[in-house]
Amino acid sequence: MQTTQQPKSQAKEIQKKEANLPANFNLEEAAGEGQEFISARDLKLPILKILYANSPVLDDSDGKYIASAKQGDIYNEVTGSLWKGKEGIVVVPCLYINTFNEWKDKGDSPGRPIKIHTDPSIMSETKRGDDNKDRLPNGNYVEDTGNHFVFILDKNYLPQEQTLIAMKSTQKKKSKTWNSMMQTRRMPGKNGFFRPPTWATTYRLTTTRESNSKNNWFGWVVEFDKFLEVAKYPKTLEITRAFYQSSMKSDIFGKVDFGPEQAIASTNSNKAVPF
Questions:
Q1: pTM of the model as a whole
Q2: In this predicted model, which residue has the larger pLDDT, 111 or 192?
Q3: How far apart are CA 75 and CA 122, in angstroms?
Q4: Residue 255 confidence class, pLDDT cut points 50, 70, 90
């Protein structure tokens, strides 16, 4: 077999270039290179879900099936991460936005809201239907939704995944309770106690079985975990604050992965909200 050898001059040139590379090449100094033009619209923000009986993850004939998954477990559809409901997850609530999501009925729906309203006055245009849903004159229904944008932490309190927890229907009360917990938390400071930014607090979320006279389901349990101290968790705080800041500046709902690709029209109120 005939082999082709590089000319000596070319080989010397390659060796010269390799010799010019820094001996201790630092990838950290090159952090972010190649991602300069990736914006919020180029990313997916998953919705964290509680698994129910009809979840594809629990169907052994579905491609998303996970043998170890059970009802009440917590699942991230984008990353495939799964957490046991009883053990739960530790999250940092970085931003909260209340919206009024307009949906078409199942079967006609693209799998995501038709519109995301931020003005609560949209509810005055609805009437309660026989199915107990708040219906607009066009036949669509509106859901009052508490949107908690969070960072999931690992056991060492290092950031793992960004995600959205959307609380509506029976879980809207849990959302209000969580907001009340955040509003009342205080940390000691130089000038007395102060209310810390939510991106510096952690909460443990687990699930529990709930029921009424007609149905039963799994819902959220929210418990305060602890404050993130600057001295102990500087990197975590840097990342959670950055998520908060980017969410305030960007079209945060534009990157939420509701389901199949479909344009969403958002109806803005006079409030300064990040979309």
A1: 0.79
A2: 192
A3: 31
A4: low
Burial class of residue 217 in the structure, from the number of CB atoms within 10 Å of its CB (0-12 exposed, 13-18 middle, 19+ buried): middle
Select from 187, 157, 164, 167 the least CA-distant residue to 90. Answer: 157
Q: Where are the beta strands (DSSP E) in the chain?
A: 45-46, 48-50, 74-76, 82-83, 89-103, 115-117, 127-128, 134-135, 141-153, 159-168, 187-189, 192-194, 201-211, 216-227, 256-257, 265-267
How far apart (Å, rounded) are the C-alpha atoms in residues 110 and 121?
25
- Boundaries of every domain in the chain: 71-186+194-267
Written as six digits, the tokens of 2 are 């005939």
Angle 136-142-145 from CA coordinates, rounded to 5°? 160
Q: How far apart are CA 151 and CA 93, in angstroms?
A: 7
Give pLDDT, residue 273: 43
Yes or no: say if 266 and 119 are a contact pair by the CB < 8 Å rule: no
**Dist CA 176 CA 249 (whole Å):** 24
Cα-Cα-Cα-Cα dihedral sign, residues 48, 53, 59, 62: negative
Separation of alpha carbons 204 and 222, rounded Å? 6
> Tokens in use for 11?
């080989």
Mean pLDDT along residues 2-13: 54
